[in-house]
Amino acid sequence: MKHKLLLFLMLISLCACQSERYVIIDGYAQSSSYHIKCLLSNSLSQQEVAQKVDSIFVAIDKSVSGYNKGSLLSRINNGEDLVLDTIFIDLFNISKEVWEISDGAFDPSAAPLFDLWGFGFKDSTITVSQIIDEAAEMKAYVGMNLFSLESRADGTHLHKVDSRSKLNFNAIAQGYSCDLLAQLLDDYGSSSYIIELGGGEIVTKGERDQGGPWKVGIDKPEDGNNESGTILQEVISISNCGLATSGNYRKYFIEDGVKYSHTINPVTAAPVSHSLLSASVIAASGALADAYATWFMVIGIDAAMEAINTLDDPKIDAYLIVDNNGQMNLIYCSCQKPQQSL
Question: Which 3-state string (H, E, C) describes the chain?
């Protein structure tokens, strides 16, 4: 009898395994490639899921792309008063929360500064000395406190204290995009997946098909390493979380022998200059990981380690790569564990 029961259970397990298979969906969106590997029911077609993935990217583009002149964000930045959609509202609320806890270091309302320095939705056409002069004046209309959501009869609108204020969600949008894709796969009943967008934003669930947590690489932050996954500093294991990496080594310009990185400190209105080369952050969601990685890159290594301890969030881990007199050191930080040099 026991042997029959064991055989019956084995058959059930085998049938369950055969009712699902891993599917790979690749594509291009948000000026980046994306890669999804997920466990799906055999009753679902890969094409159906791929079409839903595309529709999510289209919705995000229509809502918050600064490069799409017809997007909700572009039109609001240009002065139109429009009803906001769920994507815009979500990103605004998450951004304002992180802006508050970061004391303004993470600030999508620094959009005018990003444009001025040539790292936003526009290319800069003036010298650094001219940029510095204009940036000082722009600080008057930078700050998430100058924006609020306003409920009206037709829906939610964005209220600006100063009409010159603008938003740029680039530092959080890809992580948030991964979250929306994860929700889609959850709705389809997937118990195992990895979503990677742009090489730096990842969301995972469950275990990989070979068993155990998902293995992901952290890029080595050196000049010339422009393709994610080519030269790695470290390989780590993650599951049921978001991971995002921000760094200064791929986007910058040089003027009069001085290197200006794309990470702008909204408080000083200028590019940062410190020893932190890249920040890879693990968080409960892709959006938070993305925002925190940017925050830590703005404030530098010492302040970042202090912030992680202050957050007291067991879901936050960070891999911070610093330039130590020409040598790259990887530091692991967590509020639950002692700091480690790897």
Answer: CHHHHHHHHHHHHHHHHHCEEEEEEEEEECCEEEEEEEEEECCCCHHHHHHHHHHHHHHHHHHHCCCCCCCHHHHHHCCCCCCCCHHHHHHHHHHHHHHHHCCCCCCCCEHHHHHHCCCCCCCCCCCHHHHHHHHHHHHHHCCHHHEEEEEECCEEEEEECCCCCECCCHHHHHHHHHHHHHHHHHHCCCCCEEEEECCCEEEEECCCCCCCCEEEEEECCCCCCCCCCCCEEEEEEECCEEEEEEECCCCEEEECCEEEECCEECCCCEECCCCEEEEEEEECCHHHHHHHHHHHHHHCHHHHHHHHHHHCCCCCEEEEEEEECCEEEEEEEECCCCCEEC
